[in-house]
Specification:
The protein is of the alpha/beta class. It has 8 helices and 10 strands. It has helices spanning about 15-25, 45-55, 75-85, 105-115, 135-145, 160-175, 195-200, 220-235, and strands at about 5-10, 30, 60, 95, 120-125, 150, 180-185, 205, 210, 220. The strands form 2 sheets. An 8-stranded parallel beta sheet has the order 7-6-5-4-3-2-1-8. A two-stranded antiparallel sheet has the order 9-10.
Length: about 240
């Protein structure tokens, strides 16, 4: 794989969305449940089924035990560690994170989650967008071995967050002793994916590529995945 190949990570909240993502050409997904709640930990049954159906697919599993903030009790962290341990045999990466009540990185809690991931790539999710001092937060996460950060640049959408995203992408490559990938996500569409990647210099981008279904649910759309991949594939 080329070091400069652009990667689309498709956020999927159901088995049908995973099927559609793969049909559209996705090579990596974030697997979660309850996307209307901004994503929660998926069931182990769903994870096993996805792994069996698509053994070559890179599956990064969201570990988030409830909706709301990212300040977790000791009991909640224990559940999260157990969920990571249960997911590890079927997952290629873990997506999680924790904050303090002051909206700083909860270093102790996040280190615990990273350690539970047993060396598999760890993505600090969009809790980062609630962080105070994002540049310092990036250095903290890099130092503890976090592989990537999913962020909208602390704006409603990644397109609006381009200025900070550009700074973080550069910093992740050059200003830390442990390089860390900054992956734009939030409001990524076929219309703006090319612009976001070009303007930020990011090598990876994250989106659900979803459309509304007749049953009122949103599902990943294969044609949308194809369109986003086509939009970013020509970038070098």
């Amino acid at each position: 794989m080329s070091e400069n190949k652009r990667i689309l990570e498709v956020c999927t909240g159901s088995l049908q969305s995973v099927i559609n993502a793969v049909e559209g050409g996705a090579e990596r997904i974030e697997l979660c449940s309850a996307l209307p709640l901004d994503g929660l930990t998926p069931s182990i049954g769903l994870l096993k089924e996805v792994r069996e159906m698509f053994p070559q697919l890179k599956v990064h599993v969201l570990i988030r035990p409830r909706e709301g903030d990212f300040v977790y009790s000791e009991e909640e962290l224990s559940v999260m560690v157990r969920d990571i341990e249960a997911a590890l045999p079927y997952a290629d990466g873990i997506v999680s994170g924790a904050l303090t009540r002051e909206n700083l990185i909860d270093v102790e809690a996040t280190q615990r989650l990273v350690k539970a991931s047993c060396g598999k790539p760890f993505t600090f999710h969009r809790a980062f967008d609630d962080c105070q001092e994002p540049h310092h937060a990036l250095k903290q996460l890099a130092a503890m071995g976090v592989r990537r950060i999913l962020t909208s640049g602390q704006q409603v959408t990644a397109e609006q967050g381009i200025p900070l995203l550009r700074e973080l992408v550069d910093m992740g490559r050059t200003e830390t002793s442990h390089p860390i990938i900054v992956m734009p996500g939030g409001g990524v569409t076929t219309a703006n994916a090319h612009h976001i990647i070009e303007a930020t210099g990011a090598l990876e981008i994250h989106g659900s590529c979803s459309t509304m279904q007749e049953n009122g649910r949103k599902e990943t759309n294969a044609e949308t995945v194809k369109a986003v991949l086509n939009n970013i594939s020509g970038l070098v």
